[in-house]
Amino acid sequence: MTKQTSWAGLVPVDDTALYVTDTGGPGRPVIYLNGAYADQSHWRRVIDGLGDSYRHIAYDERARGKSRRSQDYSFEACLRDLDAVLAARGVQEAPILVGWSYGGVLAWHWSDRNPDRVAGVVVVDAFPVGLTGAEGAARIRKLFRRMRLFFPIASRLGLAARMSADQHADVNIELNEIAAASVPVLERATRPVRFVLATGDSLGSSGGEMDEGRKVLDPVVAANPNVRISARVASNHSKILRNDSPAVAAAVRELT
Hints:
This protein is α/β, with parallel strands linked by helices.
């Protein structure tokens, strides 16, 4: 393996630039994919838990964290961003992708398109379920418009993007449609996929909706031996990386 030195800076892609951190080192690359509006700071405990046996690469998506704004916040743009980061950092060894929420869906789709380029995927509380159709979109848009005054503060805390309420909603509406159509993607996975699942609901959900959604994985796991549930933890969706980072680190180690 070629030893890489640590680095942090902006990687240009399309009409924007992404803030990337790379710890360097000779270990297996681990690429961290954030929640829909989160920045890379949420991975700190997982990275610390795994230590310097791995090469940790994290980045802020468009209009999140220290990355710049863009005219395109689509799921396809996020897939291109991952390609751009891997190319810019010269990642040649197949990495492990670790994705939380939005990042988990991104990870299994990128792996599906690039099975020969990935060692495995760890999905942190994402699953192939979503609010879809006109009713689902209206519910999502109403939620984000109600939260619009919170975004400027939340973006400085790594909890929101530097986007309008409608742009936030657009990202979420698209994600829900893609996630809901993802069962076939997981059923045909040829690389190992490990799930770390939270408990209870999240922002915008109630009445056990999230736990019902997680059950969709049961037949997928039964049908495809490459897909397994590594852990079910007590934290909810929002706090899983803060409170249960050891379970995420353990899932990464399962793949090495």
